[in-house]
Amino acid sequence: MFWILQRNFFNAQAFERLQDELQARGTPHAVVDLRMRDRLPLAIETVPELDIDGPVFVLGSSSLGQAARRKGWAPGYFDQGLDYRELLQHYADRMLNADAVVAPLDQAYWWRTRERLFVRPADDHKAFTGQVMHREDFESWRERVLALQRSGAWQALGGDDLVVLASPKDIHAEYRFHVVAHRVVTGSQYRLGRQSCLDARVDPRVRDYAQACVDTWSPNPAFCLDIADTPQGLKVLEINAINSSGFYASDLGRLVRAIDALDPEHESREHHEPEGSTP
Description:
Low-confidence stretches: 39-43, 266-279
Helix content: 25-40%
Structural class: alpha+beta
Distance between the termini: 22 Å
Number of helices: 7
CATH architecture of the largest domain: 2-Layer Sandwich
C-alpha cells in the first residue's frame, strides 16, 4: 500500500508519529501539499504528479480525497455512508441523538419549542461545528446564513443543506475507534466531561460496544467510530472518514498494519494479531 499524506493537515506531533510508523515498516509514502488552481473558493485543489503503481491510501482533507478519485487511486479515500440519516437508520437506538430530526436549514424551524437544542451538519463535510444553541441564537444564525445566500455571496453552508436537530445530552466521556475490515483495530479516549483528555487505555466494555456497533453496520472498509459514555449508557456519537480524522492517542502501529492489510499482497505476509487484544 502506498500512503499519501497531506502536509499541515494533522497536528505536527501526530504527523511525526505516523511518519515514524510508516518508516519503521518500510511502507512507501509521500507527503504532498494541496495547491489552489485559482484564488476562488470553489477552485479545485491539485496535488503533484506521482508515479504510483498499485493500491493507494490517502490521509488528509476531503479535497485530497476528491483528487484521489480523479486520479483513480484506490482504495484512496473512504467517504461512503457518512450521512447522518444513514447512521440513524442503521444504529437506531444506539445513537446518542436517536431523537434527531434532519431537515434543510431553510426549513429547520425550532423543534418542539425547546429553549436549547444541539445542531450539527448532516454530512461529513463539517460546514460548521456541531454545538448546543439557544433558540434565539439558532434563529438569528439561520437568518444570517439565509440572508448571505440571498445576497449571492459564496458560503460553505446554504439553505438547502441538511442539518441535524436534537435535544442536548449529558456526556461523561468520548472515545474514537479506528475500524478497518470490520474490526476495531485501535482507539483512544479524547474527552472527559468537557475537557480534552487523551488516553490510550480504553475500557474493554467501550471497545466491545464499538465492535458490536461495527458488527451491526459498517459503511466502509475503513472508518472512525466515535462513542459516548452517557448517563443512559454507551451511545454512538458519529462516524467520520478515517482519512481525515484525528488520531488522538490511538496506536498508529496497529492502524498502519491494518490499512496495509487491505492490500492482499501485504495481507499474506502479516502475522495475525491475537483476538481480544486491547487497542
